[in-house]
Give the backbone structure.
Amino acid sequence: MIIARPIQLIYFFIFLSVVCSPIALANEEAIKKSVQSHFGGHKIDSLKKTPYLNGIYEVVVGDEVFYTDEKANYFFFGHLVDAKTRTSMTHERIEQIKAARRIPLESLPLKSAIKVVKGDGKRHVAIFTDPNCPYCKQLEKELLNITNATIYILLYPVLNGSMEVSKKIWCSDDQIKAWDDFMLRGVTPSDKECETPLELLVKAGRDNKVSGTPTLIFADGTIVGGMIPAAAIEEKLNSAINSKGAAKEEKRK
């Protein structure tokens, strides 16, 4: 998986002292407000007391986790490790957060996607993908084995040179052929000028915290980052459509 790196938190294994009021903060909301004042460009998604260290609070920003004390005098960036099991408690929490996160498929700019319908097209997946990403090209080979699905290709040109290639693909008379030719056969499309939605697509990716390519979003909102084989894609497509069907049934009751 190719990782796009916007401004993000940097991990250290030391405590970083910050200037803060020495008065003990009475509750989690007050601590959260104090922490937020040091991270103006990042929204503090949650803050809660850890069950394994007295007086230490877990702070979640996007898919990242760090820690602070009850006065918000110190921040700790790194992994909390259970000495007995050698298990990273931080890694487990990050995986829980990622697994719980959802992006509603209908919230994405699907009208600005290259839409590929295979068979009956009943199952749906959107893919943030970069034409110069080698893992995205591997994924395209896996997608050849997928049938009865609608695939929304969301061009996400975050790598060097990808914006120009994406423009050529989007402006092609046959976008699907141009995409397949480039991704599967290495054939660069000819130059052609037109209006493109690429800035909108890049903004949508960043707004949804898409940090790398490929990133797949399924009909139930589940997210998979990185290249996965056709069998795994099939499993996720079926799971997503079953999940949506169950949700509709629940609403009818």
Remarks:
- The first helix runs from residue 28 to 36.
